[in-house]
Amino acid sequence: MTRSRVLAALLLLAALTALTACGVPTHGSASKVRSKDVPFGLLRTENGSSASGDSGHEEALIYFAKNGRLVASSRRLEPPVTVQSVVRALGRGPNQVEIAAGVRSALPDKNPVSRVSLSSGTARVDLARPFTALSSSDQIVALGQLVYTLTGRPGVGLVRFTLLGRSTEVPRADGSLTAARVSRDDYLAIAPSPTP
């Protein structure tokens, strides 16, 4: 081998070594990534949603009622879809096609809650005063609508209700009262019918 070929081979070997050294480091075990190092807000659970369409809107399921049971309805919402935006969509009620099909909302008005927030997987819902005027059966359906809509969002598993900022008992689907957090399991009796 000539001296220039040896030199070229050494340069090529040095270049390959440098390239492989610049790759992703290997570890013998998993390591924890700091929250601040996760890009694009991927850890924000309130921003989860299904795929967005061509218009940039995101699909979200909200729940209304028909014949005493909950029914799912899809809405296209501006991203990011949050617990607040799904409750606002729920407050707007069913559209004309849904109303013609017998779908209704048991919620008392367009602003069914005073405030909604999310913390550690629990949506916190402060009910507005008109909620107290509902019949007990409509209260159950209205609560079921809120619970199913909110727990349908990624990162939400439970809902805690307050009334006018104070702890309150709410009825489950079986009529029993609770001041604890509730889940879909508490409203299975009015759950949407399985699709065939």
Structure, explained:
The chain is α+β, with helices and mostly antiparallel strands. It has four helices and eight strands; from the N terminus they run αββααββαββββ. It has helices at about 5-20, 85-90, 95-100, 135-150, and strands spanning about 60-65, 70-75, 115-120, 120-125, 160-165, 165, 170, 175-180. Strands 3-4-5-6 form a four-stranded mixed beta sheet. A two-stranded antiparallel ribbon has the order 1-2. Strands 7-8 form a two-stranded antiparallel sheet. Helix 4 (about 135-150) links the parallel strand 4 (about 120-125) and strand 5. It starts with a helix and ends in an 18-residue tail after the last strand. The model is unreliable at about 40-55 (pLDDT under 50).
Distinct helical segment count: 4
Largest sheet: 4 strands, mixed
Low-confidence stretches: 39-53
Strand content range? 15-25%
Order of helices and strands: HEEHHEEHEEEE
Number of strands: 8
Mean pLDDT across all residues, rounded? 82
Strand order of the largest sheet: 3-4-5-6
**What's the gyration radius in Å?**
26 Å
Estimate percent helicity. Answer: 25-40%
* First-to-last CA distance: 76 Å
Global morphology: elongated
Structural class, by secondary structure, is: alpha+beta
What is the element layout, followed by pairings?
Layout: H1 3-21, E1 58-66, E2 69-77, H2 83-91, H3 96-100, E3 113-119, E4 122-127, H4 136-151, E5 158-163, E6 166-167, E7 170-171, E8 177-178
Parallel strand pairs: 4-5
Antiparallel strand pairs: 1-2, 3-4, 5-6, 7-8
